TrEMBL record:
<comment type="subunit">
    <text>Homotrimer.</text>
</comment>
<dbReference type="InterPro" id="IPR018376">
    <property type="entry name" value="Enoyl-CoA_hyd/isom_CS"/>
</dbReference>
<keyword id="KW-0007">Acetylation</keyword>
<comment type="function">
    <text>Key enzyme of fatty acid beta-oxidation. Able to isomerize both 3-cis (3Z) and 3-trans (3E) double bonds into the 2-trans (2E) form in a range of enoyl-CoA species, with a preference for (3Z)-enoyl-CoAs over (3E)-enoyl-CoAs. The catalytic efficiency of this enzyme is not affected by the fatty acyl chain length.</text>
</comment>
<keyword id="KW-0496">Mitochondrion</keyword>
<comment type="pathway">
    <text>Lipid metabolism; fatty acid beta-oxidation.</text>
</comment>
<keyword id="KW-0809">Transit peptide</keyword>
<dbReference type="InterPro" id="IPR001753">
    <property type="entry name" value="Enoyl-CoA_hydra/iso"/>
</dbReference>
<dbReference type="GO" id="GO:0005759">
    <property type="term" value="C:mitochondrial matrix"/>
</dbReference>
<dbReference type="GO" id="GO:0006635">
    <property type="term" value="P:fatty acid beta-oxidation"/>
</dbReference>
<dbReference type="GO" id="GO:0004165">
    <property type="term" value="F:delta(3)-delta(2)-enoyl-CoA isomerase activity"/>
</dbReference>
<keyword id="KW-0276">Fatty acid metabolism</keyword>
<keyword id="KW-0413">Isomerase</keyword>
<protein>
    <recommendedName>
        <fullName>Enoyl-CoA delta isomerase 1, mitochondrial</fullName>
        <ecNumber>5.3.3.8</ecNumber>
    </recommendedName>
</protein>
<dbReference type="Pfam" id="PF00378">
    <property type="entry name" value="ECH_1"/>
</dbReference>
<dbReference type="InterPro" id="IPR029045">
    <property type="entry name" value="ClpP/crotonase-like_dom_sf"/>
</dbReference>
<keyword id="KW-0443">Lipid metabolism</keyword>
């Protein structure tokens, strides 16, 4: 039984809705990553499900990205286990045979943005408080190559390079302009817009669409698959560095002090 991920039958036949519910900010903790992988595996094996709308249960924060507390003050074995789970979620999402539509109903930084980029289509609520992007450099860390590749595949090399170097978090209109999302709609129309896009995608025969998706994505997937262990070791080495730990601690403190 999953606590942090809710899966519901959608209003349309063949569509499931997967909702993040990991308060306070839907950070991707190790437990949440594992629950997501299990939920996605079940959906992947369910022949009645052809498409999945991915959204947050509570509007405001879609996903706050990776859980910073999993990457601070832990031991190398923990970092390795955590990173393997991050890889596993990306591989499941990016290779899913289902149509994935992200209904972005809140803040969508870093790992949250990455999760939405694995979807086939992104609809974002038109709320100026919501931003999306790979903001890793702002934390003093760098997006791994497969985060970068996922962004490049979506927006092209030049836009990705600029967004990655600056760690830009785009508000909805800018996100649409740069192509990081496909559609921006009034907040109250987000779910219906996501379902309407889903219907268009489901009008295509599954096997033809699935083979095309694999053809487009396999080269990117293969890059990680062939060096998964090396990528884990590289993450563990970098994240364990004192300078990186200090940068992450400072960022976490800034988040905590924001309230005070
Ligand atoms: C020079 C060489 C460098 C080499 C470096 C190599 C490094 C190795 C590679 C590493 C790659 C790692 C990749 C990481 C990708 C990520 O996803 S990192 C996470 C990025 N996420 C963010 O930046 C989001 C941060 N959060 C926010 O901006 C805001 O919290 C919010 C907009 C999501 C929500 O705002 P609000 O509603 O105002 O809530 P807050 O008061 O800010 O937060 C409440 C509570 O939650 C805690 N929190 C927020 N985000 C996270 C998070 N991602 N992880 C863990 N915890 C989080 C926040 O601290 C508050 O906690 P307290 O209640 O104060 O305890």
């Amino acid at each position: 039984m999953s606590h942090r991920v809710l899966v519901e039958a959608g209003p349309a036949a063949g569509v499931a809705v997967l909702k993040f519910r990991n308060p306070p900010v839907n950070a991707l903790s190790l437990e949440m990553l594992m629950e997501l992988v299990i939920s996605l595996e079940k959906l992947e094996n369910d022949k009645a499900v052809r498409g999945i709308v991915i959204t947050a249960e509570n509007p405001g924060i879609f996903l706050a990205g990776l859980d910073l507390t999993e990457m601070c003050g832990r031991n190398p074995a923990h970092y390795a286990k955590y990173w393997e789970a991050v890889q596993e979620l990306w591989l499941r999402l990016y290779q899913s045979s289902k149509v994935l539509v992200a209904a972005i109903n809140g803040a969508c930084p870093a790992g949250g943005c990455l999760a939405s980029l694995t979807c086939d289509y992104r609809v974002m609520a038109d709320n100026p408080k919501y931003t999306i992007g790979l903001n890793e450099t702002q934390l003093g860390i760098i997006a791994p190559f497969w985060f970068k590749d996922t962004l490049v595949n979506t927006v092209g090399h030049r836009a990705a390079e600029q967004a990655l170097q600056l760690g830009t978090l785009f508000p909805p209109a800018k996100a649409l302009q740069v192509g990081i999302v496909d559609q921006v709609v009034p907040e109250e129309q987000l779910q219906s817009a996501a379902l309407s896009v889903m219907a268009q995608w489901l009008a295509i025969p599954d096997h033809a669409r699935q083979l095309t998706k694999t053809m487009m994505r396999k080269p990117t997937v293969d890059q990680l698959v062939k060096q998964r262990e090396a990528d884990i070791q590289s993450f563990v080495g970098l994240i364990s560095q004192d300078s990186i730990q200090r940068a992450l601690q400072t960022y976490l403190q800034k988040l905590r002090q924001k309230k005070g």
